[in-house]
Amino acid sequence: MSERGLYIHIPFCSSICTYCDFSKFFYDEKKVNEYLDSLQNELDSYSIDNIQSIYIGGGTPTSLNIIQLKRLLKMIEKYNKNFVSFTIEANILNLDEEKIKLLSDYHVTRVSLGIQSFNSKIQNIINRHHSFEQVKMVIALLNKYGINDVNGDLIYGFKEQSKEDLLNDLKLFTSLPLTHISTYALMINKHTILGNSNYQEVNQEIYREYYDLIVSYLEKFGFKRYEVSNFSKDNYQSKHNLLYWNNKEYYGIGVGASGYINNVRYDNTKSLNHYQKGKRRINEENLSDNDREFYHIMLGLRLERGINIDEFNTLYKTSLLDKYSEKLKSLIADNLIVIEKGYLKITKDNFYIMNFILRKLLF
Ligand code: SF4
User: What's the CA gap between 277 and 268, in Å, rounded?
Assistant: First the structure.
């Protein structure tokens, strides 16, 4: 059986970000205890083995108190025997030394910090408040307990954000001992606090300009783009996310989680109430060979290195280049796609229009 990933969703947060469109709820001690019971039930409903990477995301997993966090880590301890990476997402303001020591005791190898921005204008807009010194101190503590692989999330694309503001954030991010930076362009979704207040997005030209600026700045500081929005120092790519982009299987556990197991892609309910009653899955998609090829291309082209053509052909008993020859011919002629050293990939300067290229190729 091939190696798989395990994703666990903790939907509780101690404060709510104004742009957030995820499945999340305010932290409540009793609700968290009940939720941990339900997580255990869902984990027990699978025969989980051969786990290559574990990712605890949210929400804010570190909003749990120390007893709950220990219970969660103990619950999944048996799955992390042969893993190569174990990530947990964290909020700077609720990650203290006691919790960091606990994460280290349970072999967490990587922590993803929701930094977003150091700019007070932006922090006020998104409702996230921490100082550069606080972030620096948390990373120093993580390093002290042997957790050296640290990601920082960076958000951009606010109408109040000048180019200088973004450059200043980039300067501060790259001055920290981070190994990985994930970037997010602000998108305003309905039913978020910003959406309800009719907050306007910036125009596409500004997104494009800021994206290009991020790519060139981060590359200068040794953070190579390996996926459209993700940058890492050498050998610090996110192993867990690579599993998604390489179209590998993973268990998705928890409210609002998605998974891909035994050729079925599924989504869990976003209703905490339903989840607690054991009504978990709301969508299931049984994949045909064509569907698997579709996902493989859609996800694989997100990667800077692209799709390994031989691997694709062997996996699906087909020829990628023959099957899409007409569409590829025109995308290659327009210099949007290139074939290099056995990989099919998007050309370096065209990642920003990845969705347009995928539509041309797949539809
Ligand atoms: S963005 Fe993350 S931390 Fe903020 S409210 Fe949403 S889930 Fe919670």
Answer: 13
